[in-house]
């Protein structure tokens, strides 16, 4: 018979903790000991292992005491020693064996405890210790083996890894470990004090059962075991029972604290464990002890893992056990000012969770002490808005967002939070600004001003002020009239009177009567007065509270409304998540009727131009469209379809009210994009046409204008919208209504030009199609020509004429011919001695009269010709001349492109086919009821074809040279050119500005001169000096702005002529009028960034604009330098020149100089560039002529990241020298 194992639990644990592989197993079977020096052979000898293991299993199954035999015990110890070599199934069998045997022992012990057999209980002690030791070893071995075989973090964890392991045939010990943990929990349910008499024996045994659980949790970063709910629940139950019933609290405190500092992945599991121990097992003392120990910990500044892990633990435990945490706030308070920002962030969450816990208490549960603590927590949260770390500032706003969802509204605190959030919008950190926007949005969304139903929960300042004024009037009406103030000499009071109690008005008299002396009538009267006074006091109290309510409401609205201005600036932020949050903010406050929301929504329009070459850019565009869709295109779901169409139509028209040209351009892009995506139904388009053509009753001009503006925008994506209703455009916009409202006519011209969109603006569906061109006799072109010749002194005429001429050049086959006729007739009108007749609507050279279905009254001539101011008439003529000249250049360029396209098509075709003429007849719906043009009118088409055939022969360079020659010599100097007659006239008017002193005439003459100069380099060279003189000396800022833009156009066309005179352009940066300065800055920005103008020393003048008093100029200048910084080291190359110019400028304030230099230095990102600039500036230090110059150099060196000790030493030495000389 085998000898008994000599097992001492303390010695066994000692050897195991030292090195399990060195534990001696002398009584193991010889068959197993043969593998001791070659353990790797165990993987191949499964049969031997199974034979020996099965013998142990059979013995233990017969009697659990069999484990005490040395051969059986050493057999299991031997296999566990080499667990990494034995087959996985062997480990599984050992786990099953030990768990089953331990379960049998539990049943036996439970029976003996029930029988109160003390002798038998002592016999179980050794068996429990041996099985517990083997179970600890087996679980740890299984965990180690599983960690080696489980994929790493990149390969996956948890269920996915488990399924993969099962699929690969690998052993998964989860089920067996779960069973083992269940057996351990059964052991802990026993009254172990009956078996382990001394505390040390019990603690040792409890350690055998709990240490494998801690090992499982520590190892779960690799195995993911703790994520398994069953394993986690069993583990927590075992530890909780050990703490509650078996004195494991102190050990658990030490191990939990160590886990927090060394195993970051256990932060939240440990908090959940403490939550179970405190709630399910009523032992919160352990949580309190852990919190105290954590708060007393000194964290090393270099330690990043510890504070992060503790922070996650504190946040989670404050969510689960806020009442326990709040009791330890005295200890934890020291962490709120800890150097580690992660700990400060955690304490911010702790304060927030404590506030949430207190706010959920009922009034009966909430003591005065709790209210004081809540106030202190809120005070701390408010102070953290100003934390030095941006992550803490962002976190406190996230906590406040959670507080906004509480039923207790915290109205007084909300106002402060709103103010802090508004201030945070100017924070330097993007994350802080983004969270500030989110907090403001949340504050508005959950605002507490919902007491009065008639407010409907809205935050309209107009209604709020009206209510406030109403309550003020009611209060004043109820207050008694103020007594007249005595004269100065009578204002002396008896001291005794001050000591008397204040009496109710009307209740005092010289000799007050007692109730017994009053008659019944007097008593009733007195009671009535007292009841009235009480009712008045009660009503005053209610009114006063209502007044305070609306006063707080108005202050909150003002804070949010003011903050909206800063949020508008963030719509231009680089961080796209900020931009999206800002858009959501304006959508939200618009729903609550806050005034500034409309400005923000309009400012959002420019985001449609966000570059979409990245996911962020596309996200901004998509989000903008969604915002506008929600705002203006989502009606009440209960409405009928016709109501829905009216709602959308009215909203689209309202978007055009009060818009700037830039906003209209952005709106055009937005609506055309939505039209392409099918978001606007045809029924809405029909509603827009109905509004545009409505004539039964009076309709506001803005409404009709808005309808055609929107229709023109939609036509960019779908030109058929205008084509199908061309007759309506002719009857309304180009008819009598258009003549009375020139703005309507102007927008109608724009819409008509969308019939054939210019190059670059066609929709995808129409881009490939041939551009439709109309003959000059077409009704549309006749009407457009008539508009240009109309007699009007209204300044809106210029806008109408501009769009009419532009539409002619887009739609006409031969726009030059038609415009020549317009010029001839307009010239006769201007220079005729007698009153000219009104220009007819039909072309004198056309064979057929205009045939269009319009009322006769719409084109009837007035009985008397209108007289016009001669200066304005001449101004209009010059405007037409200039605009026709510019459009003719564009027309020539399009002709060149068409010639080259056709030549390329011809070369690609193997068999040439007859070419379709540009001037071939295009049938359009507008020709309904109209006769076809006669063959006589179509005769120019073959000539055009012959000319194209001739042009297609030479190379593309020959075509370009031919077009350039036409532009240079024929437009302004050709013998048959109509424009050649106006060149000298325009120059004479501009030169003799005293003779022609009408301001409009001078402005139009200057504009015409500039446009003609863009046509021909010869004409430009002759008149350049005159133009520069006008740009410098003109008193009209509009003229100066126009000439700045014109000079920029000439710099693009004739760079060699303008290059020497660019200083005149830069000089306008110092113009006294902000509009001229803005125009100049914008123009130079385009020229420099597009590479049309070389960057020169004048760049310092643009740098000064970064500190201009005009906010738009300042922002534009900063945007320019931000873009310039991406262009081939441009700022680095010009840095020294800019510094020299700025330093020498005595008019530049010191603070402005420093801000400019600091901004410019921020663009020097490369270390080698910073070092080279620093060396160049350092060489100037000894040569500095003045302290001011030296200070400028020293400051600039401080802004450059040179890291040069020698330069630093030079600065220090130079500073002392300057002070000594002073």
UniProtKB/TrEMBL annotation:
Residues 1038-1197 form the Condensin complex subunit 1 C-terminal domain. Keywords: Cell cycle, Cell division, Chromosome, DNA condensation, Mitosis, Nucleus. GO terms for molecular function: histone binding. It comes from Bimuria novae-zelandiae CBS 107.79. This is Condensin complex subunit 1. Pfam families: Cnd1, Cnd1_N. PANTHER family: CONDENSIN (PTHR14222), CONDENSIN COMPLEX SUBUNIT 1 (PTHR14222:SF2). One of its GO terms (cellular component) is condensed chromosome, centromeric region. Residues 89-252 form the Condensin complex subunit 1 N-terminal domain. Belongs to the CND1 (condensin subunit 1) family. GO terms for biological process: cell division; meiotic chromosome condensation; mitotic chromosome condensation. It is found in: Chromosome; Nucleus. Residues 146-165, 830-867, 902-946 are annotated as: Disordered. Regulatory subunit of the condensin complex, a complex required for conversion of interphase chromatin into mitotic-like condense chromosomes. The condensin complex probably introduces positive supercoils into relaxed DNA in the presence of type I topoisomerases and converts nicked DNA into positive knotted forms in the presence of type II topoisomerases.
């Amino acid at each position: 018979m085998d000898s008994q194992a000599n097992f001492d639990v303390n010695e066994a644990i000692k050897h195991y903790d030292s090195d399990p592989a060195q534990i001696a197993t002398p009584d193991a079977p010889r068959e197993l000991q043969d593998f001791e020096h070659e353990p790797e052979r165990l993987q191949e000898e499964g049969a031997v292992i199974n034979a020996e293991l099965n013998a142990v299993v059979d013995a233990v199954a017969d009697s659990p005491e069999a484990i005490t035999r040395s051969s059986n015990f050493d057999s299991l110890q031997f296999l566990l020693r080499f667990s990494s070599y034995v087959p996985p199934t062997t480990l599984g069998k050992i786990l099953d064996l030990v768990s089953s045997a331990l379960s049998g022992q539990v049943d036996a012990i439970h029976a003996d405890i029930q029988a109160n057999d003390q002798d038998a209980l002592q016999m179980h002690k050794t068996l429990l210790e041996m099985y517990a030791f083997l179970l600890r070893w087996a679980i740890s071995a299984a965990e180690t083996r599983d960690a080696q075989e489980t994929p790493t973090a990149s390969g996956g964890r948890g269920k996915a890894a488990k399924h993969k392991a099962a699929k690969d045939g690998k052993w998964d010990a989860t089920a067996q470990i779960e069973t083992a943990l269940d057996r351990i929990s059964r052991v802990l349910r026993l009254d172990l004090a009956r078996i382990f008499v001394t505390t040390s024996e019990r603690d040792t045994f409890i350690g055998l059962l709990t240490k494998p659980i801690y090992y499982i949790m520590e190892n779960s970063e690799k195995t993911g075991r703790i994520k398994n709910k069953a394993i986690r629940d069993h583990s927590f139950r075992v530890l909780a029972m050990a703490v509650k019933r078996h004195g494991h609290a102190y050990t658990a405190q030490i191990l939990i604290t160590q886990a927090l500092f060394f195993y970051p992945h256990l932060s939240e599991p440990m908090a959940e464990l403490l939550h179970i121990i405190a709630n399910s097992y009523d032992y919160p003392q352990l949580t309190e002890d852990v919190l105290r120990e954590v708060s007393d910990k000194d964290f090393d500044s270099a330690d990043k893992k510890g504070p992060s892990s503790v922070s996650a633990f504190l946040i989670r435990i404050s969510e689960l056990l806020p009442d326990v945490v709040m009791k330890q706030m005295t200890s934890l308070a020291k962490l709120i000012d800890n150097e580690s920002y992660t700990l400060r962030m955690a304490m911010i969450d702790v304060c927030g969770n404590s506030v949430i816990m207190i706010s959920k208490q009922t009034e009966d549960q909430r003591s005065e002490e709790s209210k004081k603590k809540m106030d202190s927590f809120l005070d701390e949260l408010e102070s953290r808005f100003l934390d030095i770390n941006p992550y803490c500032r962002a976190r406190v706003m996230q906590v406040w967002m959670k507080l906004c969802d509480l039923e207790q509204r915290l109205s007084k605190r909300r106002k402060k939070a709103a103010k802090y959030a508004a201030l945070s919008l100017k924070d330097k950190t993007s994350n802080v600004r983004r969270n500030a926007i989110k907090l403001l949005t949340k504050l508005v969304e959950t605002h507490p001003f919902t007491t009065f139903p008639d407010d409907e929960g809205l935050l309209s300042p107009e209604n709020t002020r009206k209510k406030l004024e109403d309550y003020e009037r009611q209060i004043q009406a109820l207050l008694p009239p103020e007594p007249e103030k005595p004269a100065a000499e009578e204002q002396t009071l008896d001291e005794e009177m001050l000591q008397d109690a204040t009496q109710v008005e009307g209740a005092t008299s010289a000799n007050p009567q007692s109730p017994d002396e009053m008659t019944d009538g007097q008593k009733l009267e007195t009671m009535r007065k007292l009841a009235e006074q009480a009712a008045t006091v009660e009503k005053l109290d209610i009114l006063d509270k209502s007044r305070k309510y609306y006063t707080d409401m108005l202050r909150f609205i003002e804070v949010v409304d003011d903050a909206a201005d800063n949020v508008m600036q963030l719509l231009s932020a680089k961080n796209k998540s900020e931009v999206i949050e800002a858009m959501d903010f304006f959508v939200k406050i618009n729903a609550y009727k806050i005034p500034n929301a409309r400005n923000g929504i309009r400012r959002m329009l420019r985001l449609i131009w966000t570059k979409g070459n990245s996911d962020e850019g596309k996200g901004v565009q998509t989000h903008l469209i969604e915002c506008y869709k929600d705002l203006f295109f989502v009606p009440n779901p209960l409405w009928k379809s016709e109501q829905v169409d009216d709602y959308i139509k009215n909203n689209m028209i309202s978007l055009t009210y009060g818009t700037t040209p830039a906003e209209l351009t952005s709106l055009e892009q937005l609506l055309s994009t939505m039209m392409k995506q099918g978001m606007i139904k045809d029924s809405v388009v029909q509603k827009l046409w109905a509004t545009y053509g409505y004539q039964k009753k009076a309709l506001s001009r803005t409404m009709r204008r808005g309808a055609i503006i929107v229709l023109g925008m939609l036509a960019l994506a779908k030109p058929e919208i205008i084509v199908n209703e061309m007759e309506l455009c002719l009857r309304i916009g180009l008819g009598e209504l258009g003549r009375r409202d020139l703005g309507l006519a102007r927008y109608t011209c724009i819409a008509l030009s969308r019939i054939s969109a210019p190059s670059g603006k066609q929709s995808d569906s129409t881009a490939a199609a041939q551009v439709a061109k109309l003959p000059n006799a077409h009704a549309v072109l006749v009407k457009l020509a008539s508009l240009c010749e109309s007699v009007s002194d209204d300044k809106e005429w210029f806008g109408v004429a501009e769009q009419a001429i532009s539409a002619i050049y887009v739609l006409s086959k031969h726009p030059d011919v038609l415009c020549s006729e317009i010029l001839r007739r307009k010239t006769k009108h201007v220079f005729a001695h007698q009153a000219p007749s009104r220009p007819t609507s039909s072309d004198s050279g056309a064979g057929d009269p205009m045939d269009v279905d319009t009322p006769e009254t719409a084109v009837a001539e007035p009985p008397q010709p209108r007289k016009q101011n001669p200066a304005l008439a001449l101004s209009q003529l010059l405007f037409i001349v200039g605009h026709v000249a510019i459009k003719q250049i564009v027309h020539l360029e399009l002709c060149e492109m068409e010639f080259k396209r056709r030549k390329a098509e011809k070369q690609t075709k193997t068999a040439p086919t007859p070419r379709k003429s540009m001037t071939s007849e295009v049938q359009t719906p507008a020709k309904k009821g109209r006769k076809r043009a006669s063959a006589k009118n179509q005769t120019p088409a073959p000539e055009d074809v012959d000319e194209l055939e001739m042009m297609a022969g030479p190379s593309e360079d020959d075509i370009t040279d031919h077009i350039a020659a036409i532009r240079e010599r024929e437009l302004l100097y050709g013998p048959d050119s109509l424009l050649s007659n106006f060149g000298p006239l325009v120059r004479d008017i501009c030169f003799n500005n005293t003779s022609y002193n009408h301001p409009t005439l001078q402005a139009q003459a200057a504009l015409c001169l500039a446009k003609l100069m863009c046509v021909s380099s010869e004409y430009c060279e002759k008149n350049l000096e005159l133009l520069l003189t006008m740009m410098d000396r003109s008193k009209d800022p509009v003229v100066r702005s126009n000439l700045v833009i014109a000079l920029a156009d000439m710099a693009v066309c004739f760079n060699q002529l303008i290059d020497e005179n660019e200083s005149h352009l830069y000089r306008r940066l110092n113009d006294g009028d902000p509009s001229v300065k803005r125009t100049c800055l914008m123009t130079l920005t385009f020229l420099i960034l597009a590479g049309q103008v070389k960057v020169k020393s004048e760049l310092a003048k643009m740098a000064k604009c970064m500190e201009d008093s005009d906010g738009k100029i300042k922002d534009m200048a900063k945007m320019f330098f931000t873009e310039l910084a991406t262009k081939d080291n441009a700022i680095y190359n010009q840095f020294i020149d800019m510094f020299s110019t700025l330093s020498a400028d005595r008019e530049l304030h010191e603070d402005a100089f420093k801000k400019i230099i600091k901004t410019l230095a921020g663009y020097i990102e490369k270390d080698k560039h910073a070092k080279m600039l620093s060396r160049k500036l350092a060489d100037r230090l000894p040569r500095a002529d003045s302290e001011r110059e030296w200070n400028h150099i020293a400051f600039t060196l401080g802004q450059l990241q040179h890291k040069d000790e020698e330069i630093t030493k030079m600065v220090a030495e130079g500073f002392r020298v300057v002070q000594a000389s002073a």
